[in-house]
Design a protein that fits this description.
This protein has a single domain (2-179), classed as Hypothetical Protein Pfu-838710-001, CATH 2.40.320. β6 (104-118) and β7 form a beta hairpin. The protein is built from 5 helices and 9 strands, in the order βαβαβββαβββαβα. It has 181 residues and is an alpha+beta fold. The protein has an 8-stranded antiparallel β-barrel with strand order 1-5-4-3-2-6-7-8, surrounded by 4 helices. It starts with a strand and ends with a helix.
Amino acid sequence: MIEVEVKAKIDSFEDMEKKLSELGALKTKKEFQEDIYFNSPVVDFAKTDEALRIRTTRENDDENIFITYKGPKIDKKSKTRKEIEMGIEEAQKCSEIFEAIGFKMVRTVRKNRQYYTYENFEISLDDVENLDPYMEIEIALEDGSDYNDAQNSIFELFEKLGITDGFERTSYLELLEKLYK
């Protein structure tokens, strides 16, 4: 799968929730996410622009755990990249396996995420621990699909919502790494 994603800093969750409602976006769920990121013993993912994480999501009493690999970004305007994800049973044991074969835990990123859908877009309002408010808009495409139209439609949606700057190509992990250096 190719994930076409654009993120922007926003001023207020409340203002954006109102704009999304006025647009007709449907609020679908709210969950807590904890992402544990790892670096490879072979290559430095910070240099190759890749990511490997274990994500635990909690919504009410439901918990789901996934391993996700994100490939290098494909372009200079967005966070478009290949993504491979797989559900697992136990985050702690997976973490122990990664560390046993040489992967190093880099950082844990925690956030509360509110999801919306609008047309073929998935929109999230992200309250990330120790960062300003952000909104992400993404479209998932099949491998080999042309992502330029999807990317342009995402920027058009941001403009409809009154956002024309504050775009960020770096991940929350990278933003937190900069903050704590």
